[in-house]
Amino acid sequence: MPIPFGVLGPLTVHDNHEPRVINSQKHRLLLARLLLATDRPVPADSLLATLWDGRPPRTAAASLHNHVTRLRRALGPGLADRLESTPAGYLLRVGAGELDSTVFAEHLRIARKAHADGDWPLVTAEVTAALALWRGAPLADLPQLASAPESTCLSELRLLGLEWRFDAELALGRLQGLAAELSPLVAEHPLRESFHRQLMLALHRTGRRADALAAYLSLRSTLVDELGIEPGEAVQRTHQEILSCDGPASPASPDAPAPPAPPSPVPAQLPAFAADFTGRQKELDALSLYLRPGEPGTPGRVVVVTGMGGIGKTSLVLRAAHAVLGDYPDGQLHADLHGFGTAEARTPHDLLGRFLTDLGVPGSSLPGHTDDRAALYRTLLAERRVLIVLDNARDTRQVAPLIPGTGRSAVVVTSRHRLPALQSSARIPLGPLNTFEQRSLLRELCGADRVDADPAAAGRIMTACSGLPLALRIAGSRLAHRPAWQLDELARRLSRTDRLGALTVDHLAVRDVFSFSYDSLRAGDRPVEPEAARAFRLLGLWPAHQHTAESVAALLGTSVDHALDVLDTLVDTHLLDVSSPGRYRFHDLLGEFAAERASADEPAELRSEALLRLLSWYTAAAARANATVLPQALPIPAVVGADDFELPDHPDEQAALDWYIDELPALRAVVRTAAGMSRPDLSWRLAAALFGYGLTYWWTGEWTDCLTEALATTTAAGDLLGQAWLHSRLGVAHGMAERTDLSLRHLQSALSAFTELGDTAAQRTVLANLTNAYQQAGDLEQANAYAERTATLAEQIDGPDRTPADLLVIGGLLFESGDMAGAEAAFRSSAAKWRVVGSRLHLAIALSNLGDSLRGLGRTDEALEALTEALAIRRQLDSHGDVADSLETMARTSFERGETEEARRLWEETLDIARRHGLDNYARMSTEGLAALAGPRSD
Question: Where are the beta strands (DSSP E) in 460-531?
């Protein structure tokens, strides 16, 4: 019967004796980390460090919660409840006998006691039972946890168990086949003296005395050569026992000391650093600090410098390395690992051979196996102070054997990958240069006078280079070798469509540098790497906008979990940036390169399908946000296929509004892009779904522009439903901006279209808006006529009970007719209902109207109370037009109360907001109010 959880080998999970497949690497890593804690809570910080190798992005806390939720789902119904959240962290409850490592450890605990008691049969039985659980190195499929203390402890327990079993077999005289078992262990663990001693005894007691002595000599040679020590007392006693069987040791003993080794050379391999290197002072200071030699016996310093191609990693490292040469008197080793580029990547085996010969080892003495070379390399560096620079690394496998064990040497690694599995003392990620650094570098490259003479053109060049040092270096080089060129000429060339083509000089080309990263990912040996390469080029279909895991899942046609794995890979390889928590975007030049790759490497049909999925996702997501902001609004007809998407959840109205604001540039692009594709209906659906945004931020004009653009598309397509919705929305938008004639024109068009379509619910909404529009125009006769038609339809649909929206319309008519008491009752009832619904936007409208009604009744204390609450809500929503509305109404109320200074303060604030945001109507009203205050003033 399988144990539910297995870590002794690749991670396994069984639910009700059936295997559970957990595909996501991050979920496997999370589960493994919790299992290693064995029923102890693991703090969130520790899990974040594990999942993101000690450098979690800003999005990590939110992502961790999502990963835990999805891991519960992946564990299956029988195990999901085991994963709990506690104040101390996350806890996976595992019962007795449900984790192979705890069963393994319990067998060995019994074996340990039996070994101490000399109960050899029990030792054999318990160790055999323990080893039967061993399927391989702990968590062999999760190299990130291979060096975790818990994993190391389990591996050490296995070796101890083997030692105890061999002791038992020797004590019981069970020698048959024992030497055959011990020989590979001796080769695998050349410094573990206990295995050598047991092999010596097994060989000696089976009549192979010469082989036993040879085993001793092999051990002694290894210890003396690599560590400079003699075998321990137990091995020495066994050696003497074997020798004593045939007299004393020969005078020509191999124990005679070896002659001293010749002095080793001092390598000095650092290339020169760029004389015009500028900026990066913060990173240089950090490198200087991290590269101070460590103390003897401590792990060597390892600093990893990462960043996208062309970001200046090598220049920074060489500059810093030359600055600390005095700290490393035993030399410097340097190698370009060719992890990215046209040359074949260097192997650890060959590099170790080169470094060993550089450190004085004769070529004829180089060990043949990579592990043996690495062991000798660590030995030679243990007592030396050497600086090692490993440039352009592909992955951790290429670098790990080149890291010293202990000592005062230091290693600097540069890579376009984050190398999360590499144990390091520090990590320094490089981003684009800031504006000051860019200008300083450009001045160094082509001359300060030329840059200072035309700062505008210099700024355009810097913008085109997007802070990428390689791009600036190419631009500066082109200018330096063409002294007759004006900066404006290069700025003009860089502004053309093929910017990457212009960023080329001699053998340097930004496009080539990006290609090395992309091609490496495309040819990667992990399945996620080619998938990430495809995601990179598909993201090039939408390069100027931010992405989330949900939008990328739609673009790729995959799950969010898989999209997260792909996004992590792109971020780890610096082909994508985390712009803010949960959001990803391209460096500007990389976005242009991704668009090129999409056009060149992805068939046109697949490009179109992917882009339509993304546009559909945005449209469905906007409809979800709209429903959150306006839960009682008429629902927009659903997008076909929207059920296949994972859409963002908004816990409240403000979260949905924040989403609108974050995504607005992309949403506008959807309206424009859909117009030219096979689904122009997405244009009007998206524009209509901006209703929640438009009602809150009507004064910006963004919503009206989207509606107008979408209406042109929908009219050209002959889509009557889309025209009906857009005329309806435009009627509201123009009405809020007090463009009453346009509002009435669009609303009448909407009413005709919805009547032709037979949509009574939509007709009711349009009739209510027509009531408001005629009321705003001062035509109360028409307003009342449309109000009656609205009421008739409302009663047919909902019965006699009035909705909060209906009450707003009724209150407005009563207010305009002079019935302030009736208006108060309608607005008060509307406000109460909006509180229940949970719409702050409409609650603020009802409260503002209620305050105006109370002001008309002379109950100014109550009026200010309602208006103050409305103002607070509108400030929270950051709706400047509505804030101006509330302030102006409060100013009039204060003026009528005789509180002239308070009225002045409120009108001045209204005027300031109106001027800053182009609110002409409120600017006029506040100016008139301030003039009224100035009239009777005696001073």
Answer: 504-505, 508-509
Q: Which residues pair with 92 in a beta bridge?
A: 83
Q: What is the pTM of this model?
A: 0.66
Task: State which amino acid sits at residue 609.
Answer: E
* Separation CA 562–CA 613 (nearest Å): 16
Cα dihedral value 562, 565, 570, 572, nearest 10: 180
Q: At what angle do helices 681-689 and 653-674 cross, to 10 degrees?
A: 160
Written as six digits, the tokens of 744 are 């009435």
Cα separation of 476 and 678, whole Å?
45
Q: Are strands 301-306 and 426-429 parallel, antiparallel or unpaired?
A: parallel
Single out the residue of 864, 838, 896, 429 nearest to residue 656, CA to CA: 838
- What is the tens place of the pLDDT at every residue in 690-742? 999 998 888 778 899 999 999 999 999 999 999 999 999 999 999 988 899 99
Cα separation, 815 vs 695, in Å, equals: 22
* 80: amino acid identity, one letter: A
Cα→Cα distances 145→75, 99, 721, Å? 20, 17, 57
Asked if 744 contacts 774 with a C-beta cutoff of 8 angstroms, the reply is yes
Q: Coil, helix or strand for 392? A: strand
**How far apart (Å, rounded) are the C-alpha atoms in residues 530 and 300?**
35
Give the containing element (helix H, strand E) for 319: helix 313-323
pLDDT in tens, 904-933: 999 999 999 989 888 888 889 989 989 888
Distance CA 913, CA 849 (A): 21
Alpha-carbon torsion angle 530, 536, 540, 546, nearest 10: 150
What does the DSSP 8-state code read for residue 143?
G
Closest alpha carbon to 733 in 707, 765, 771, 761:
707
The 10s digit of each residue's pLDDT in 639-691 is 877 778 899 988 888 899 999 999 999 999 999 999 989 899 999 999 999 99
DSSP 318-347: HHHHHHTGGG-TT-EEEEE--SSSSSPPPP
Cβ-based burial of 181 (10 A; exposed 0-12, middle 13-18, buried ≥19): middle
Contact criterion met (CB below 8 Å) for 769 and 761: no
User: Six-digit token pair at 831?
Assistant: 């406000």
Cα–Cα distance for residue pair 907/925, rounded to 1 Å: 9
Task: Specify the DSSP element, H or E, that contains 19.
Answer: strand 18-19
Q: How far apart are CA 875 and CA 887, in angstroms?
A: 11
- Of residues 67, 72, 35, 75, the one with CA closest to residue 48: 67
